[in-house]
Amino acid sequence: MESALSGPFGARPSMPSEPAPPSSPAASSVPSVPSAAAAGGAENTADIPAATAPTTTDGRAVRDTAGLFRLLDDLFEARAGDWWDRFYADRDRGTPFFVAKPDENLAAYTGPSGPITPGRALDIGCGPGRNALHLAALGHHVDAVDLSATALAWAAERADAAGPAVRGRVRLLHGDVFTLPLDGPYDLIYDSGCFHHLAPHRRISYLDLLDRHLAPGGWFGLSCFAAGEDGMGTERPDAALYRDRTLHGGVAYTPDQLRHIFTGLPLTETELRRMRDEPADAPYFGAPFLWTALFRRPVTTG
């Protein structure tokens, strides 16, 4: 989720007090976000409980992909919505992406000369809503998903402050993006900092989500940890992450690794570059330890 981007700027960005974040966006038991009427903010859904593993007495619960993925999830330290709630509770912690401004690449994609026009959008790991509200202000109707009720309550406050037109185009959804009853298809799916917190096997879940919910001709935008010089995140191979039983704060990718994962869906690469470094007084967020990528699904599939 977006909270992956914690860490102050410096000569080389680092992540403060970074125990291993969630290995997958599993649903949490935190309270649901206040309703639109109660919070005076955007609409939200009820919590979606985590799937319950079948009862077994012989240690043989795996009978399908879902069971296998639960087993693999359990290899990693479980930190879900309550971890992120504590993270977002301190709004003064100096985390760069707490700012109320969108990613510079998303602003470019959706600006006057960009290829993306208003439609239906899904923001995965929306955090306090900075990208979702940017899209809503441009006329997109946005489903914004996060594990953290605390982050969504903050997003609801920002949506309320943005006025009724923006607030009415944002729906805040609390829970697991892989199990929520999403209302696709979407013309744009955007992820700022969730993908690099997924364990390797959850890339399969992620690709399935894109396949089910990205409309023909739709756009997929991503920002994630960059491998290499001045990047961030672990470059250890997938097998080592399972042996280590940790994602080491987030997984770094090379451009070729991202192409390998996403172009087989099929998605066509439009852009893949380092995010531009934006000064603190700029209207957009930008940090060069991230990749930004834009892919498009073919208008016709099959």
Give me some keywords for this one.
alpha/beta; eight-stranded mixed β-sheet; 8 strands; 27% helix; globular
Layout of helices and strands, plus pairs?
Elements: H1 36-39, E1 43-44, H2 65-73, H3 81-89, H4 104-110, E2 120-124, H5 130-137, E3 141-146, H6 149-162, H7 164-167, E4 170-174, E5 186-192, H8 202-213, E6 214-225, H9 238-244, H10 255-262, E7 268-274, E8 290-296
Parallel strand pairs: 1-4, 2-3, 2-5, 3-4, 5-6
Antiparallel strand pairs: 6-8, 7-8
Beta-strand proportion: 15-25%
Report the major sheet: 8 strands, mixed
Helix content: 25-40%
Silhouette: globular
Number of helices: 10
Give the radius of gyration. Answer: 18 Å
**Terminal-residue CA separation:** 31 Å
- E-strand count: 8
Taken in chain order, the helices and strands follow as HEHHHEHEHHEEHEHHEE
- Oligomer designation: single chain
- Overall structural class, as computed from helix and strand content, comes to alpha/beta
Low-confidence stretches: 3-54
Lateral arrangement of strands in the main beta sheet: 1-4-3-2-5-6-8-7
Question: What is the typical, i.e. mean, pLDDT?
Answer: 84
Describe this structure in a few short sentences.
The protein is α/β, with parallel strands linked by helices and 302 residues long.
Structural features, described:
Helix content is 27%, strand content 17%. With 302 residues, the protein is α/β, with parallel strands linked by helices. An eight-stranded mixed β-sheet has the order 1-4-3-2-5-6-8-7, sandwiched between helices. Helix 5 (130-137) links the parallel strand 2 and strand 3 (141-146). It is globular, with a radius of gyration of 18 Å. It starts with 35 loop residues before the first helix and ends in a 6-residue tail after the last strand. Mean pLDDT is 84; it is low at 3-54.
